Structures are given as structure tokens and as C-alpha cells.
Amino acid sequence: HGFPALVTVGGGLYVGENPALTSLKLGDALTSVHSLFLALNPSMREFRSQLLAVEDDLTVANNSSLEVLEMPGLIEVPRNFYITANLALQELEFPALRGVGGAWYITDNASLQALTGFPALEHAAVIEVSGNADLRELTFAGSFTESISLLVYDNARLERLAGSPEVRLADDTDVYVGSNPALKAVDGFAAVIHLDRLAVDDNAQPVS
Asked: Are 127 and 104 within 8 A, CB to CB?
């Protein structure tokens, strides 16, 4: 552990541009930070934290060797949640995360095969899952009644997109599913009655 007795950080937690840093696990006493920025650490393979609250943005980006990202206690991110361009990322575990006030972006993580690590996620204003070249299946389970945009595109191996019976979506939600060349099925979303726009296009395989 680094800083095992650390309890508070007055501002943000910034871990960036450390070419030789391979891992970082902070002490469990640190439960809240203003913002979290973890980026451009090309040798880092894992990041684990017991944070319960991030009061602003959470950004994990351009960590080319990062394989594991775990924050099991985090419940809410009031602004934006970015997990992007982590080329080796395989495990994302945020089991307690219920809501994101702004955008929930999972983009350009080339080795990510599944997005099962968000079982409690219920709302985010903007949802985007794009450019994850190895993602095979994507299932939404929360209600997402506050969402205004759901975008799923450019996931080269995505075969199935599904929504559980709990998914409601707001009446003014814009849903776009496109340029997923392996897509075979869009299933579920049985409780969705009204949408502002629904576009499912430019997916090379027929959608059933």
C-alpha cells in the first residue's frame, strides 16, 4: 500500500504520467476525493481503491498496460465517468455504483470483452459504449429513467445488445446502435414505451 494512513485529500487525486509505476493501492481509510484522474501511466497493471465517493469527475484514460480496475465501494459519481483508451483493460469492477450525474463513457478499451462489473448502475445522463474492439455482449440492467442518450457504436465484435425488464429510459432518450459489424441481436427493453429517437443502422449482420 501507498499512504496507508491517508484519510483525506482536500482536492483531487491525480496519478498521471508515471512511466515506470506498475500498481497503486491506497489505504482503505481514504474514502472520498473531489475528483479522480488516472492517466498516462503506461506500466500500471492494476488500480484498486476503497473510495466510497468521488465528488466530481472520474477519469481513467490512456493507461496502456492497465488490466484491472476495481472500486468496489464507490456508489455515486455526480459528474462524468470516463474509462477510455486503456488498451489492455480486461476487468472493470464497480459493483456498488448506482448513478452517474453526467456521462458514463466506456470507450476504446481494446481488450475489454464484457461489461458485467456494473450490476447496480441505475442512472446516467449520457451512456456511451464505443470503440471497444473485443466486447462481445452488452446488457443493461438498471432503469436509466434519467438518461437522455444511449449510444452503442463501433464495437467490432459485439454480437448481442440486451436490456433487462427493469430498463425504462426517459421519454426523450435518443438511442443509437450503429457500426457494430458483428451484431446479431438486440433483445429485451420490454418496458421501454416512448423514445425521442431510435436508430439501429449500419450493422453489417442482420439484427433480430
From this structure: yes
